[in-house]
Specification:
The protein contains seven helices and four strands. By secondary structure, it is an alpha+beta fold. A four-stranded antiparallel β-sheet has the order 1-2-3-4.
Amino acid sequence: MFIVWGSRGEKNILGVVADDCARCHRAEKFVAQEYVRTEHVYGISTGSTRLAITRQCTVCDAEYECELERYDEIISPAEAELMPFKELLEETNTPLSKLLRDSQTHVPSDEPQAAALPDIESEKQWARLSELLAPYQQEPEGEKLARKWHRSPDMSEYRRKRLLARIDRFLREKETAKEILALFERLGDTKPGETFGCLAAMGMVAVTISAYWWLPTD
């Protein structure tokens, strides 16, 4: 009996970050990627071992070792394609962004300069959203959005609008979750004769949520 087994090397894209490139001598966009060795028997994977994580410059293709924990966030390739470089830098590598800003080093930019909050209405909006996000700061996504929103006065109009869209979606999801929880609580207190009405209501909620998830977010 022959047993077909072995291993193969794979490269997986983890996302996109901004960092300093020693070859380009400036900050550039990098693709973070991992190299793994996958063991298999009869072509079926039985496990994998991570060999290395690297970042590869999208300009000169130079490749360096990469420590993912150094970055604030790893952006998906699809989202990174739509982001101005300055925003990518601020989202993924705050220390480098601050260092370049303080030293007035040139950072590639294809977006307008940051615009200060223009009037009292914007300040009210800032305070109101900060208040709405406060209950969720113990959650990773809520904490991240709150932290970014506190920096929003220094953002460009483009970045602020994108952040507002993310916050809006996050808060809507939370409100929907509350409504579903309340519905289940009411269902638990429902008499047998009222069960059909509650199930119909749950069906409507499910349809609404499904439609919401399929709506475009950008």
